[in-house]
Amino acid sequence: MKRICVFAGSNPGVNPAFAEYAEALGKELVKRELELVYGGSNMGLMGRVANTVLSAGGSAIGVMPTGLFRGEIVHTGLTELHEVVSMHERKAKMNDLSDGFIALPGGYGTFEEIFEVVSWGQIGIHSKPIGLLNVDGYYTPLMELVRHATETGFIPQMQGELVVCESDPAVLLDRLRDYKPPVKGNKWSELTEE
């Protein structure tokens, strides 16, 4: 792995641990000589992880849709900034630039981004590792939902391993480094194996 895409809230959230863990993840990325790919903002947890990476001498690559957001939230000190036309192009570019994905706490946008890369992994568009940094139990309800969807037959058992969830940035990065994608198989319960 050379680059990790980090999805994160554009707000810092109310729990100070969210920002602390964003910074800890940034430090761990630099320690491992991993480049950061992210949404290009200087705000919220996105800005925290990028600023930590840059201040520690690492590389931070942003991908931002031109004109979609107010100019002042675009991080002007990045190693690289890729401007794209749409959110769809943004996510595709972030995927192309990255060797793996981590979600810090965030809202609708973060959920959408992480579920899209999980869906892409499920159907074989990529086989990159996907992780959730479970700060103060933030992603525990989401993992319970995934477990529930698996138990009720909407997520195949073999694909429950598509997402790695850990509360320590170093442990999460170790698990992503050692990740082996689940064996691909028929994900549709109504189709017979051939």
TrEMBL record:
GO cellular component, one term: cytosol
One GO molecular-function entry: hydrolase activity, hydrolyzing N-glycosyl compounds
Domain of life: Bacteria
E.C. no: 3.2.2.n1
Entry keyword Iron: no
Keyword Hydrolase included in the entry's annotation: yes
Broadest EC class assigned to this enzyme: hydrolase
Alphabetical list of Gene3D superfamilies matching this protein: 3.40.50.450
GO biological process: cytokinin biosynthetic process
Keywords noted in UniProt: Cytokinin biosynthesis, Hydrolase
Sequence similarity: Belongs to the LOG family.
Name the UniProt record assigns to this protein: Cytokinin riboside 5'-monophosphate phosphoribohydrolase
Naturally occurring in which organism (per UniProt): Brevibacillus parabrevis
